[in-house]
Amino acid sequence: xxxxxxxxxxxxxxxxxxxxxxxxxxxxxxxxxxxxxxxxxxxxxxxxxxxxxxxxxxxxxxxxxxxxxxxxxxxxxxxxxxxxxxxxxxxxxxxxxxxxxxxxxxxxxxxxxxxxxxxxxxxxxxxxxxxxxxxxxxxxxxxxxxxxxxxxxxxxxxxxxxxxxxxxxxxxxxxxxxxxxxxxxxxxxxxxxxxxxxxxxxxxxxxxxxxxxxxxxxxxxxxxxxxxxxxxxxxxxxxxxxxxxxxx
Length: 248
What we know:
Oligomer: single chain
CATH class: Alpha Beta
Order of helices and strands: EHEHHEEHEHEEEEEHEHE
Radius of gyration: 17 Å
Shape: globular
């Protein structure tokens, strides 16, 4: 499909993005027996999830073969209104009737962020590695991403710092080691949990879903692949941008 698809407004974007995602999920499920999707938080993807839920509910054969992951999470409890898991559960999983065993979340908000990041990495390792001897992980079928005005995507902030198991901090970078990271964002004085750019980039298809005139400048920079913006690291050959007209 085209690299950049432009829709009249947020409603049309939500409908068409849901249709595209459902088509990809159905194709993957029919081809391999299962479909894997990494979801984003945010208000624009939420509209898409609301449209996707009834499509999946009507297609139980597809729904039962879909497996759901979160690209990132805020450091809050799962029932907090700011939680990505909470939003996605209400917008998509509950209305569609997704079974709990098909959902893989971060378990954020208690304990240590680094420990929770490593725990989620182990979940990904187990799921995407078919055998212990397999060196390369299977690729997620779909990754959904949003875009912040500062060029962040998932919780990969341009001024964020990744924390290792010893508490050492290093700048968020395209080549962060591993599949997940605990991220500290100084200007917000808060922690986030995020998949790394390396794991997100391994997906078969990546879709940015973006709306709002406030994203116009940063979208132009990401389309130009400005390397200081984390979202640019995911502007790859398998990436498509689904946006509203006011965003371009």
